[in-house]
Amino acid sequence: MIRAVIVDVDDTLCLTEAASFELENEVLARMGREPMTREIHLATWGEILLDAMPHRSPGVDLDRFARLFAVLHQRYLADGRLDVIPPENLRALDELVEDGRSVLLLTSRTEAEVRHLLQPDHVLAGRVTGAYHQGNTRYRKPDPRAFDELLAETGFRPHECVYVGDSPGDAVAAGGAGIRFVACLQSGVRRLDEFDPRYVTAAVPAFPDILPVIRGLRGEAAA
């Protein structure tokens, strides 16, 4: 059977691109800079934040941006404007756990950006058994080695896992690691024709739709 369902965070488990766009532009406004366009934000979405910002706002002071972002990020979280996981997605996680599968997170976020999701009072507690991020992995998607630590620490074999994500880079990383990939297109940020079909096992319009897909897969190694 499929023993592990590995889930991306942004625009997969929760829809974050639009909220992040507002947050980053608020930081830029406090720095006295012009707002970025939605087009450039979408074009660079999925990149590491401080790598993307010179493209989103050329000439931006990255150190100052990072300091202001950290403060406003916490305020957005406290106000419930960021990283809100819909109830239907939580129910889907519950069903995966009830099916006897482990649920893990694999994201390109920094440790600081994922720490709040791992607190014992967070809604993910008891649902997610581990999280892999920039703080505990050596490689970043789309490098298939992004899964190295997860596989080594859990003992799961690639054919026993499914990765659920929203970007072509997610698919490339999973496919290169021998892990089946389900594209979640709920955010509308990506289209299915942007993905390399060699790496896509299935595509779903919303996160809960992964349930019948995963239940229909057999955890067998490829011939």
Q: Considering the protein shown, what is the CATH homologous superfamily of the largest domain?
A: HAD superfamily/HAD-like
CATH topology of the largest domain: Rossmann fold
Largest sheet: 6 strands, parallel
- How many β-strand stretches? 6
CATH class of the largest domain: Alpha Beta
Order of helices and strands, N to C? EHHHHHEHEHEHEEH
Strand line-up across the major sheet: 3-2-1-4-5-6
Distance between the termini: 16 Å
Radius of gyration: 17 Å
Give the tally of structural domains.
Answer: 2
Count of separate DSSP helical elements = 9
Using the alpha-carbon principal axes, give the shape.
Answer: globular
Average pLDDT for all residues: 95
- Strand % is 5-15%
Quaternary organization: single chain
Helical percentage? 25-40%
Secondary structure category = alpha/beta
Q: pLDDT below 50 for ≥5 consecutive residues: which ranges?
A: none
Q: What is the architecture of the largest domain at the second tier of CATH?
A: 3-Layer(aba) Sandwich
Description:
- It comes from Actinoplanes teichomyceticus.
- It holds the Pfam family HAD_2.
- One of its GO terms (molecular function) is phosphoglycolate phosphatase activity.
- InterPro entries: HAD-like_hydrolase_sf, HAD-like_sf, HAD_2, HAD_sf, PGP-like_dom2.
- This is Phosphoglycolate phosphatase.
- The chain has 223 residues and is an alpha/beta fold.
- The chain has two domains: 4-15 and 83-215, Rossmann fold, CATH 3.40.50.1000; 17-78, DNA polymerase, domain 1, CATH 1.10.150.
- Helices cover 37% and strands 11% of the residues.
- It contains nine helices and six strands, in the order E-H-H-H-H-H-E-H-E-H-E-H-E-E-H.
- It has helices at 17-30, 38-43, 49-56, 62-78, 87-98, 111-114, 148-154, 168-176, 210-215; strands at 4-7, 102-106, 130-132, 161-165, 180-184, 202-204.
- The protein has a six-stranded parallel β-sheet with strand order 3-2-1-4-5-6.
- Helix 8 links the parallel strand 4 and strand 5 (180-184).
- Helix 1 crosses helix 4.
